[in-house]
């Protein structure tokens, strides 16, 4: 044999010996790969991070540079076994990656979709699924495998800093919208990470706060939306939250991650921690044992802890193997494993159209008074407006923190109106434009380096003082005034009542001055709310003629607002949360952080266990949102489900019939009785028979939205409610329990506006589940009697 041939034979032998020893991962040899893994490799698999052979590099702050710059993290590659790294990026309002990369002039902008609250307010599951398909496609085409969203926590309290990322105060809305989003994203062959599991209801002390809550409220409210989406949409991954639930960290909570999630609901994917979740008081072994498969992003010490715990007999290798198997099952599904050739060129133009349509559908018209003999909106004969409020000129497309998106542009109100043929008064526009440029550079110069989130989204700029003289100057030149009231919020901070939930003194002055001067001249005033969360309206709404909640509607914001104001789009959004008169009307406010200056708290304060910061008692129990206001007959500013249209609708022929499978089929015919095309939402509420647990006066059980109905046109909507949703949670028996008797079904277009009622007789129903997540302290639960 010549030398060259013998070298070739030798290298072939070596290669085949290596591959005989080390199987290369595929969908059918997971057990074999698992067997071939060393303990060190198994530990690596469970600790996410860098991609240079071991964990812990480059992604500590949720910003890794390798593979996809600006993605939140990666799972570890083990080339010996053909295991690639996979990439996870934030979520949930679009793909959060760096727009610019070193060494190339190519840009990597992602579409800014409406924030979760705005999406949910569409009540349009088909449209949300379409947004999901676009987001999934951008995830895929930018080389990511999982997007860290949707955000599925409940709006327990209007002051929570991250409510904008979540859908609703109601678990059924959360479950139905979340299911649609997961389906849409995963239809593209990438995964979601539904977050933050669970009860991540406040941001103050978010990494340690103990959410003390009854088993009933957990099952009926905080877990319900996750449960629906797990059962119906099969998410690839779930993110465990930072907080404790009844004394146990969610990320090390066997009850939550195994008994409830896997045993009760049949979840088959992986659980990953929220970011940098290493805790001094939570052994890594407990997390592995609890069913938390992936610690994100990783520290080398965490992998070492796993190895040590196994060697010392503190962690069963079977638990490690179980989690590693789940990781391998996840990896073989990913685009990276399939070696998908991503383009880095998603169709941003097509997705901009989707975001514009979706945001117009999620905007909620709160007020539309008669002005000079006709409704003030849609604007007719208004060709030039005086545009007040700094956010008219610095429109906020999304919130702060990991949920922000590096968008290619944000259409502000000036351009949005201009595109719709409405101009703005020149002097005011000039003053504000110059002020915004100044305020932005000042903010940059003043930046506190510890406030990392200032780089993560568009901070709110201070308002300008609006004087009577300024308004008097504008009034002759304008047909109407539009005032934008902006609010920003985000990760790591809750909102204050003063100045955030309530108006600032400057804003009050601006609204009253603009209204009085414009009204004296017979010209109307419209307020646009550019906020991801609820705010106070009751004290000032009578001063203005129209109020549109635009939320934080994504990059096409100004165009979408103009579509609604001018009537190109007829608003069909409805609130998915109550707008209370005062923040203190919400019962959980008593147990919510009264000291939202989280960064000002000292360790001493921590050690003293501050109520509402270090722990929060869910004394309001099941009475969250409208469940409280409706049951206790407390007035609100705008009720759950509320939203006006430029047309009118009737609902008739409402029926509810047992479906033979213990559930109920509901039908209602919606007719457009007005003069413009429009869409309407039928909301189905149920009052349960007496006899079992104390129940809210009524609870939403399902909903459906019509297609675009022309004037005079009708559509019959058919919906079904499974029996297991017509129950309450019986803690003593660890079961879902539905009483036998008459269930009153109601249909309406908000919780206070019921248009049809009927009853259905149902037999008793029970469904056993695990006894899990028991409170460790006695809570003082709110009850009617
Ligand atoms: C947030 C998550 C986010 C993660 C990665 C955390 O601080 O709570 O929502 O997905 O960071 O950026």
UniProtKB/TrEMBL annotation:
Residues 680-751 form the Fibronectin type III-like domain. Gene3D superfamilies: Glycoside hydrolase family 3 C-terminal domain, Glycoside hydrolase, family 3, N-terminal domain, Immunoglobulins. One of its GO terms (molecular function) is hydrolase activity, hydrolyzing O-glycosyl compounds. Residues 1-20 form the signal peptide. InterPro entries: Cellulose_deg_GH3, Fn3-like, GH, Glyco_hydro_3_AS, Glyco_hydro_3_C, Glyco_hydro_3_C_sf, Glyco_hydro_3_N, Glyco_hydro_3_N_sf. Pfam families: Fn3-like, Glyco_hydro_3, Glyco_hydro_3_C. SUPFAM superfamilies: (Trans)glycosidases, Beta-D-glucan exohydrolase, C-terminal domain. SMART domains: Fn3_like (SM01217). The keyword Ribosomal protein does not apply. The keyword Membrane does not apply. GO terms for biological process: carbohydrate metabolic process. It comes from the Bacteria. Keywords: Carbohydrate metabolism, Glycosidase, Hydrolase, Signal. Belongs to the glycosyl hydrolase 3 family. PANTHER family: BETA-GLUCOSIDASE (PTHR42715:SF10). This is Beta-glucosidase. It comes from Hallella mizrahii.
């Amino acid at each position: 044999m010549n030398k060259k041939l013998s070298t070739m034979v030798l290298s072939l032998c070596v290669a085949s010996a290596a591959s005989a020893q080390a199987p290369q991962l595929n969908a059918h040899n997971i057990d074999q790969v698992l067997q071939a893994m060393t303990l060190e490799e198994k530990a690596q698999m469970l600790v996410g991070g860098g991609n240079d052979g071991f964990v812990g590099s480059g992604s500590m702050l949720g910003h890794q540079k390798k593979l996809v710059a600006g993605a939140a993290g990666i799972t570890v590659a083990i080339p010996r076994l053909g295991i690639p790294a996979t990439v996870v990026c934030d979520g949930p309002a679009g793909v959060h990656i760096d727009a610019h990369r070193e060494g190339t002039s190519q840009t990597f902008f992602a579409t800014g979709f409406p924030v979760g609250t705005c999406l949910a307010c569409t009540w349009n599951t088909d449209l949300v699924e379409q947004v999901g398909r676009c987001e999934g496609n951008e995830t895929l085409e930018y080389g990511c495998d999982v997007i860290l969203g949707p955000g599925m926590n409940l709006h327990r309290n209007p002051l929570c800093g991250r409510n904008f990322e979540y859908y609703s105060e109601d678990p059924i809305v959360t479950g139905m919208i979340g299911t649609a989003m997961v389906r849409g994203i995963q239809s593209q062959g990438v995964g979601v990470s539904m977050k933050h599991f669970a009860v991540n209801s406040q941001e103050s002390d978010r990494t340690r706060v103990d959410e003390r809550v009854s088993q009933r409220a957990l099952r009926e409210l905080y877990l319900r939306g996750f449960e629906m989406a797990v059962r119906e949409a099969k998410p690839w991954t779930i993110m465990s939250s930072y907080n404790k639930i009844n004394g146990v960290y969610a990320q090390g909570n066997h009850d939550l991650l195994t008994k409830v999630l896997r045993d009760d609901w049949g979840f088959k994917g992986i659980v990953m921690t929220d970011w940098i979740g290493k805790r001094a008081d939570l052994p890594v072994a407990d997390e592995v044992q609890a069913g938390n498969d992936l610690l994100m992003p990783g520290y080398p010490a965490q992998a070492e802890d796993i190895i040590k715990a196994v060697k010392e007999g503190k962690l069963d290798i079977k638990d490690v193997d179980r989690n590693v198997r789940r990781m391998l099952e996840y990896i073989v599904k990913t685009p990276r494993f399939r070696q998908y050739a991503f383009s880095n060129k998603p169709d941003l133009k097509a997705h901009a159209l989707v975001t514009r349509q979706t945001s117009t559908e999620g905007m909620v018209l709160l007020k539309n008074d008669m002005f000079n003999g006709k409704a003030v909106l849609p604007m007719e004969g208004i060709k030039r407006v005086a545009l007040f409020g700094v956010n008219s000129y610095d429109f906020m497309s999304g919130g702060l923190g990991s949920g922000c998106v590096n968008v290619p542009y944000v259409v502000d109100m000036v351009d949005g109106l201009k595109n719709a043929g409405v101009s703005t008064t020149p002097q005011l526009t000039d003053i504000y434009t110059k002020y915004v440029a100044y305020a932005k550079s000042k903010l940059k110069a003043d930046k506190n380096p510890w406030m990392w989130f200032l780089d993560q989204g568009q901070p709110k700029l201070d308002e300008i003082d609006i004087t009577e003289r300024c308004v008097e100057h504008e009034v002759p030149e304008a047909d109407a005034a539009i005032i934008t009231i902006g609010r920003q919020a985000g990760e790591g901070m809750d909102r204050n009542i003063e100045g955030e939930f309530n108006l600032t003194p400057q804003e009050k002055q601006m609204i009253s001055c603009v209204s009085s001067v414009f009204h004296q001249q017979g010209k109307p005033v419209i307020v646009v709310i550019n906020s991801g969360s609820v705010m106070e309206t009751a004290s000032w709404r009578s001063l203005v003629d129209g109020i549109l909640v635009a939320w934080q509607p994504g990059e096409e914001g100004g165009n979408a607002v103009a579509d609604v104001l001018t009537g190109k789009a007829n608003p069909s959004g409805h609130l998915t949360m109550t707008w209370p008169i005062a923040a203190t009307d919400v019962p959980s406010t008593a147990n919510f952080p009264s000291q939202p200056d989280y960064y000002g708290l000292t360790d001493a304060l921590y050690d003293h266990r501050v109520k509402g910061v270090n722990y929060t008692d869910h004394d309001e129990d099941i009475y969250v949102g409208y469940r409280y206001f409706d049951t206790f007959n407390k007035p609100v500013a705008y009720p759950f489900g509320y939203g006006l249209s430029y047309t009118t609708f009737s609902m008739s022929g409402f029926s509810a019939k047992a479906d033979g499978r213990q559930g109920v089929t509901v039908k209602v015919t919606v007719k457009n009785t007005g003069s413009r095309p429009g869409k309407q939402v039928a909301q189905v509420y149920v009052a349960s028979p007496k006899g079992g647990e104390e129940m809210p006066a009524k609870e939403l059980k399902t909903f459906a939205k019509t297609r675009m109905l022309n004037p005079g046109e009708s559509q019959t909507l058919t919906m079904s409610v499974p029996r297991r949703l017509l129950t309450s949670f019986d803690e003593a028996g660890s079961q879902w329990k539905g009483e036998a008797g008459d269930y009153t079904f109601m249909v309406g277009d908000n919780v206070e506006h019921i248009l049809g009622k009927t009853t259905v007789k149902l037999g008793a129903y029970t469904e056993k589940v695990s006894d899990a997540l028991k409170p460790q302290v006695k809570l003082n639960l709110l009850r009617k009697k």
